[in-house]
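Below is how a single chain appears once it has passed through the pipeline. First comes the sequence as given, then the structure the pipeline wrote out for it. We keep one example in the README because the format questions we get most often are answered faster by looking than by reading.
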Amino acid sequence: MYEGEQTLLVTRPTRLLSFGFYVLFVILLGAAVAFILDLVPVPEGIIVPFLGWTLETTAAAVLGTLSLLVFLYAELRRASTRYVITDNKVVREEGILNKRTAMVPYSHLERVDITQSFLQRILRIGTVVVDTGDDSISIDMVPKPKEIQAILSQRMGRRGYPQQAGPQNR
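Resulting structure:
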C-alpha cells in the first residue's frame, strides 16, 4: 500500500466456493459412520494384517481420514483467498505456501460485471468480474456483490495515487 491509500473493503469468498468439497466430505463421513454402525455388509473375521483391525474398522478409518482431509482442503482454499479493494486498486491474493497476487489499478478498469445463479441471488452472493480489456480478475462467491460492483464502478477509469508520496516502506 502507498502512503495515504485507504482500504475500502477486505473480504473472503463464502463457503459456497468449495460446495462440492463439502458435499464430498458429508458423503465420505456418512460412509465411515455406516461402516462403524455395521450398516454395510462385510465378510466377518477378515483382519487387516499390518494393522490388526477388522475390515470394517479399517474402511471406517480410511473414509473418516479422507473426509477430514477433504474438509481441511475446502476450508484452507477459502481461508487462503482474500480480496482487497483500496481507493486506488483491486487486489486478489491466493495461496498459503505459494502466494499469487493479482492487482488491477482503477485506471485500467473497463467493466465490472456480476455473475449470479438464481440460488446465489436468493443468498445475496455472487462473482464480481473486474475486466481490463486484456485481463480480468474474478472476485468469487462474495457476499453483497452489488455493493462491490458499486464501489468499483464509482472509481472506474480513475487515476490512482493523486497525493502519492511513494511507498510506505521507503
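The first helix runs from residue 19 to 36.

See the next section for the split statistics.
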